[in-house]
Write a structure and sequence with these properties.
The complex is a heterodimer of chains A (288) and B (292).
Chain A lengths: L1 H9 L4 H13 L4 E5 L5 H13 L3 E3 L10 H10 L3 E8 L3 E8 L5 E10 L14 E7 L7 H14 L9 E13 L2 E10 L16 E4 L3 E12 L2 E7 L6 H32 L13
Parallel strand pairs in A: 1-2, 1-3, 6-7
Antiparallel strand pairs in A: 3-4, 4-5, 5-10, 7-8, 8-9, 8-10, 10-11
Chain B lengths: L1 H16 L2 H15 L11 H11 L6 H4 L1 E3 L12 H25 L18 H64 L13 H12 L14 H10 L13 H5 L6 H4 L18 H7 L1
The chains are: A alpha+beta (288), B mainly alpha (292).
InterPro entries (chain B): Ebp2 (IPR008610)
Subcellular location (chain B): Nucleus, Nucleolus
Pfam families (chain B): Ebp2
Chain lengths: 288, 292
Amino acid sequence: MATLYKTAQSEYMDVDELIDEKERQSNIKHRVLMVASRGSTYRHRHLLNDLEMLLPHSKKEAKIEAKKDMDLLNEMAEIQGCNNVFYFETRKHTDLYLWISRAPSGPSVKFQVQNLHTMDELKMTGNCLKGSRPILSFDANFETEPHLQLLKEILTQTFGVPKGARKSKPFFDHVFTFSIVDGRIWFRNYQIAEKDAETGGDLGRNDKPTLIEIGPRFVLNTIRIFEGSFGGPTLYENPDFVSPNVIRANLRKSRAVKHVDRINSAKEKEIRTAENPLPKDPLNDVFD
Amino acid sequence: MSDSEHEYSENENDAIYDDEETALEMAALESSAMIERPAKEFINHKAALSALLEEISQKSLKWIHRCDVVSTQPIVVEKADNDLDRELKFYQQGLEAAILGKQEVLNAGVPFERPSDYFAEMVKSDSHMARIRQKLLDQQKGIQNAEEAKKQRELRKYGKKIQHEKLKEREDQKKVALDKIATIKKRLRSGDMGDADDFDIDVDSEGDDKKSKFNRGAKAKGGRPQPNKKRQNKNEKFGYGGKKRGIKNNTSDSAADMSSFSVKRNKSTNFSAPSKKSRVQRPGKAKRQRTH
């Protein structure tokens, strides 16, 4: 504290303000716990690995089975000293859900992850330092609705790499963009290339940098926002969300229509023949 | 009439309802179509959300701790399926954020770019980047190859036409030349060797020259052209002209001639028949099938 006092005095700053600032900084120790559920496929695993690589303040944990007892995740976060949890829940080996929660008090959000492409499968030419800090770019649409504002705050606190985080590098060379299209949140990751794309030389003062996509890509479809961490009362429910189970069921039903049509037509035919019987032929028993 | 009708309707009932499963299915379908589910109420507690936002908000923090940039223009994409349009909008959003963010970072007195001599592990490994580069190269190569093949195909189509025309042209030329020669010959034969002759050539001698090209050397007796050297040798060896009888029979001289005998070829190390085991044998069927 003494040194703090000294520096403050030397720079003619308000001491209380400086101490406040320091305390606030020490409070933001965002750490993200990344957990996958059992039954996740290689793509889901690769996405988790990609995010772990991009977020140096994250901590990966072994897969768990938390179908019923979601409180387990809060405990795990506490043990690991994390205040945010990314829980990648896989259902039926196909559907990926992402829970982002502020443990232990909430709020938490459940997303469905769609249009998922990992860094490995995308042949993107961009690259960035491991552990460098990202600039978080949000679409202006995020400011329109309360639930979007809340989502923006949660995403900022989880995807933003805190200054001076362990294993992080103090430079900025990539942008995470979050955009709202079609009622979903689209995630992209670009490298900021400060070099001239053609000559490879340094940029001039007024030249714009270029962006090169790094990957991964995914789309988050909000399902619900809960007040608590992994539970509690629902604050928001996405009216446009359709469960992938329902989509699949409808698809199957539409295929079943063929069978039902056949049954219906058979039934109709029987009714038709009953209503219009053939007239009796008067010549039928001439030779009897 | 009415009787038969009655019968029909009974039959119909049987046909439909004897199959219990079908009946159940029909019922289920009808009911699902009839029952209108009440419109679900979706929860959206705006006040609670705003309060929660206030609670967790870290807006008071300096920018350098948050690093968030909100775009000036909201993204509007007419169709989410339009990949190009959508990605362009995302790119623009990212670019704007990169420029604004750089300013903010520099304002906070924090380095933005890493120094050029700062090397550290990258997100994508060198082998990964090499794979990407290889993929790009392969793609380019593929495009080039396809283009070249297309060009070749066109050329071949066109080339055939050209070849055909050339052959035709050559034939025409030959025909014209032959015609000319024939007319000149005719004129010579008729003894009309005036100054009007355009070609000051000795036509006959030209013809002789042509002939002598085919049979070089002196003429044999009887005016017959002598065959070439190879033919001559063959004639000598196998006989050409004259009596054929007895020419291939052995004589005492030919029988005694050992010049064509090769010791090396007829030499065998062992006079007895070679043993069966030493020969390389084809393996049995089972063995062959095992190996393949």
